[in-house]
Amino acid sequence: MTARPGATSRQHCILVERPDDLEAWREQARALAAAGVVPEHVIWSLQSSGAADLFGGAAAPAACLPSPAAPLAVRANEAFLGLAESVIRHRDPARFALLYRLLWRLQGDRRLMEKPADSDVHCAMAMGRQVRRDIHKMRAFVRFRAVTEPDGGDRYIAWFEPEHHVVRANARFFLDRFASQRWSILTPDLCLHWDGESLVEAPGADPRDAPREDATEDLWQRYYASIFNPARLKVGMMVKEMPRRYWKNLPEAQLIPQLIAGAQAREAAMVAQGADPFPAAPPETLEEIAQGIAACRRCPIGCNGTRAVPGEGPARARLLIVGEQPGDSEECAGRPFVGPAGQLLDRHLRQAGLDRASIRLTNAVKHFRFEPRGKRRIHQTPTAGQIDLCRWWLEAERRLVKPDMVLALGASAGRALLGRAPRLADERGTAMRLADGAGLWLTVHPSYLLRLEGAARDREEARFQDDLARLRIMLEEPAATP
Amino acid sequence: MARLSLAERLEILADAAKYDASCASSGTSKRNSRDGKGLGSTEGMGICHAYAPDGRCISLLKILLTNHCIFDCHYCVNRKSSNVRRARFTPREVVDLTLSFYRRNYIEGLFLSSGIVRSSSHTMEQLIEVARSLREDHAFRGYIHLKTIPEADPQLVERAGLWADRVSINVELPTDAGLARLAPDKDSGQIESAIGRIGDAIVEAKDARKRFRHAPRFAPAGQSTQMIVGADGASDSQIIGRANGLYDRFGLRRVYYSAFSPIPDASAVLPLRRPPLMREHRLYQSDWLVRFYGFSATEVQQATDAEGMLALDIDPKLAWALKHRESFPIDINLATREQLLRVPGLGTRAVAAILQARRHHRLRLEDLGRLTRSIARLRPFIVTADWRPASITDSVDLRARLAPPPRQMELFG
Ligand code: SF4
């Protein structure tokens, strides 16, 4: 739209005193539009944002307006005012300019507000929706705590942090509902106090001004935990309707993490009873596996809050070494075989002339199963059921890495590859073949060696070294690679 | 047995109530307590004060007065033969809990239900006493939903409506045969006549208020019911038919569907597996099609497969559209509201926005993008100023392309 007669090219800096005061904004906007000031020439700012100082205590708004000889008639309509009522309360500083632009364009196009596909209208409507939602959320999420006042009566006090400037807009709601009790709503920008007779506004407060506790909250939390059905977890839905930003002031939200964890463990227990929990299509890349195991909660180990440790090494490798599960150091590092057992393995690999960099290393179970003892996490062998469940990931990895040879370290790894408990004593040191044609070589887990001492340790380390040396020979013999 | 604390009983009696789907607190008369004499208010729309990790809204204190029960309905966790911990509240305790939760802005009101102790009428009297005390002794103006007991004295059932905003009587199972088998103490004839009586009382009270302004209100938020899905062999088509009959005959506000959830200590007559949660969701969608989208129950039934089941992977509106490809594409710029509502992917809000926007110019895909959530799903079914599907509605793989990729979560559902 072009400038109308009487327009000047000066910039106008307009200070808005209260962030949510539509009346005052209307006065200013009407004066500007009447003077033919185009939207591009107006800079709106909020008094409290320090803008006043920035412009050297800018003059009163009216003073910086040109006074045209013939002011233009400025008209708004109901649709605009209805929307402005919400938009003005938005926290985005651009709201004043947007509203003025709409008002300005409305002068040339009386039906502008009926065009939801127009980008200004669209934007204002979106802001209006956000504000109305915040108004609604405040009604929902204010939580009062009761305190006894000197006269023996109760006062109900809430601390709340709205996203937009919606406190005044909600005063009526809380009055309608709670006129018979004394209450206060404290927020960072503005507080409301009702004493049974009059409503008083006060400047913003600090969370420490609100009471810390209320005995009834315990009952409410117990109610919240009991009314929820752990057989149907829909966390996304919950977060959509009860965004996290409100959680810290909701007593019941403190329980959410533990409720979710409990429900997942329960789900896992159901899985253990037989349902097949994996999606039909296996992952197609190693990254997918890494992401998949990170999110995997199919067995209870996945629900213990540890991180999953994916395999490491080349994406295609001739040798795949499978351990049991990540230990304490592996879980911390997010990498397999970096703890004491890993270091021992490294030493033996070097000694056998096998290059760790060309080998893919992974575990039968991707999460760390442990039992807390004081501050320490004590390794716990995964159950057969857990190994069988997690095998799905190992098989996906094998399909992608396509090793010629798989080295299984210990009974858990053996079980994960064979699908049955291996007889380590008999089957160690015999070349076996897996269904996909790869060779399988079974030996002990290096952590077993770590538990031995003295002569026994020397003897077993030598046997282990021997297993690796024979493995290397098999890898070099073309006959070993089908 | 040691006497349980209030907190322990609250846990037991809330836990026992969680299988009830309804938590709505909408649609009642507007009230407030600006006069400073009572407590509470209701607006047109109820407020969800919290959401549980199961995604459900918590708007009311939803509890049982007691979970003792002399009946033995197989699908119910509180049945006589079930081995759960039992507890009871006195009416006074429920009143106090409701008020102290309400004063802290945790809830919109109370949803009270109960197992049956001593006799149906005795239990009903206790439920009514809670509501009476809240309204009379404490001038409580928040929301009250009473689940009434159809076997109780009809006069008692009707008294419930004088104090409550909403009353409900559960039909429990979609078929009479299912009810006879799984709820041997209940009688579908008795349930329906109780629903019918309440329906009549609601209509009468509305009439009376038109003539005398001070005539008492009667359940101003109407009546609802609930059906358990997946415990008997009823197909979706049968369920849709039954719900529709209930809406038509009794003017119900809502029919709730509750996917049968294997309950602790389940009876051996029940299926072991619960139906996919998605089934419940699809039934709600079909309910909406009838209530807000101008579909007839018969049309929704057409969207089911040979066994009378709704597809789980696509919503019933899309299923219907795929079976009626001859009705598409629909011209966004010319179609009536009724036609637009039939386009898969267009909700009532989007349709309103389209009708409004097209008054000014012919809509293009880009405009539609701003008015709807996603145009990808819409494209095969619509014509805009700059788009016409290349007879795409005929292509065989349309369903495959429109069905959302399977989500892992549902495998757990
Ligand atoms: S241990 Fe394996 S099966 Fe269990 S949660 Fe972790 S990745 Fe999933």
TrEMBL record, chain A:
Protein's recorded name: Type-4 uracil-DNA glycosylase
Protein family: Belongs to the uracil-DNA glycosylase (UDG) superfamily. Type 4 (UDGa) family.
Domain Uracil-DNA glycosylase-like: 310-469
Keywords on record: 4Fe-4S, DNA damage, DNA repair, Hydrolase, Iron, Iron-sulfur, Metal-binding, Nucleotidyltransferase, Transferase
Keyword presence, Transmembrane helix: no
Keyword 4Fe-4S: yes
Molecular functions per Gene Ontology: DNA-directed DNA polymerase activity
The species this protein was found in: Sphingobium lignivorans
InterPro entries according to UniProt: DNA_repair_put, DUF4130, UDG_Type-4/5, Ura-DNA_glyco_family4, Uracil-DNA_glycosylase-like, Uracil-DNA_glycosylase-like_sf
Top-level taxon in the UniProt lineage: Bacteria
Entries under SMART domains matching the protein: UDG, UreE_C
From TrEMBL, chain B:
Keywords: Iron, Iron-sulfur, Metal-binding, S-adenosyl-L-methionine
Name of a matching Pfam family: Radical_SAM
The keyword Isomerase appears for this protein: no
Residue span(s) of domain Elp3/MiaA/NifB-like radical SAM core: 59-286
InterPro entries per record: Aldolase_TIM, DNA_rSAM_put, Elp3/MiaA/NifB-like_rSAM, Endo/Exo/Phosphatase_dom_1, rSAM, rSAM_sf, RuvA_2-like
Keyword Iron-sulfur included in the entry's annotation: yes
Cofactor: [4Fe-4S] cluster
Descriptive protein name: DNA modification/repair radical SAM protein
